[in-house]
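Handout for the seminar on molecular recognition.
Each group receives one record of this type.
Step one: identify the two inputs.
Step two: read the structure output and locate the region that could contact zinc ion.
Step three: write two sentences on what you found, then compare them with the reference statements printed after the record.
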Amino acid sequence: MTNALRDRFLRYVQIYTTSDPFSKTYPSTERQWDLLRLLRDELTAIGAADVVLTEHGYVMATIPATPRHEQAPVVAFLAHVDTAPDFSGEGVKPIVHANYDGHKIVLPDDANQVIDPANPMYADILTAVGKDLITASGTTLLGADDKAGIAIIMTAAEQLLRDASIVHGPIRICFTPDEEIGRGVDYLDINQLGASAAYTFDGGGVGEVSWETFSADGAVVEITGVSTHPGTANAYGMVNAVHLAGKLLGMLPREFAAPESTNGRVGFIHPTGIEGSTASTTVRFIIRDHDNDKLAAKGQMLRLVCDALQAGYPTAKVTCTITKQYRNMGYWLRDRPEIMDKLRAACADVGVASYDEPVRGGTDGSRLTERGLPTPNIFTGGHNAHGPLEWVTVQDMQKGVDVMVALAKRWGE
Ligand SMILES: [Zn+2]
């Protein structure tokens, strides 16, 4: 079983599936179809039912229930085919370090890319000692995010389809594009998926389970100044919007409310971009917190800073527009405790010590949960996502396979 899992993973990571945030198409890149079509064909080949690839690039399939367990709740498992545009995902050359012995790894295609267990930032690689470690070669990311999730789901699906002794209810499989650019479920029809609960397999070390994400808003502050000829600016009352943008940023409490100075459950106000001129300047922000009230308070703080700026410069115009992005899935999952209870029990069934890790970001599950399909996240064993030092082990991915099979049994009871 372990070798089939490894070979699947190695096959998937070599397919170039980087998504593109600037694209107007869906999926954002043609190349994602290559893996989506392959998965459709592989699901058909292993005997899954109802296999479809939709016009928007969702692969869906059914693992039919064991006879007399058709009435059990339908549970879905999801993973995404794209890799992050932050780093090249083209021409990935995975390297298997069989029975890794804990030595420093210098990636062969770029000697500056080093995974050194002596560096505290990378010391978690020592959990891979004695396992079959997989890295990239130095010039690309590996793509364990989220091809580890896909390999886990495909391997577990094959096991459930082949082994009639495993008793389970109806199971749905779904592979999605464009998760990394935040559009992963834009066109996903949850009625077509037809599940009452779902899980994403997307990142995290063995045992990590997440039923909370950030709640998220975006904010745009537009500052309109008074533009005059600089030679006569003093006489004609110039108000420079560029300076006002600087004052705005200076007034924000960076020490305790910026991503670079916060951790855990503390949220932030983060300026993501600024553009403009003397006449007008726009500053864009993302606002994040696990708690909706604290999120609202951060938005209010930004508004107050804008009001103060406006009061100081009455001839300028300062507007602040806050728009909702997504909400912490925990607000809904608290009302469906069986979804996490079954997951924790399934982990225990296969000897995995689970622990809750609130996500400092959003997942496809955040949006699915808000739309009515509660979807927490399960680990894949992947580490150092979105960069050249990404790694995963075959044995850790196998734990994901074991958890999915155990979870299928738990839902079939
Ligand atoms: Zn991911």
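Reference statements: The mean pLDDT is 95. The chain is about 30% helix and 20% strand.
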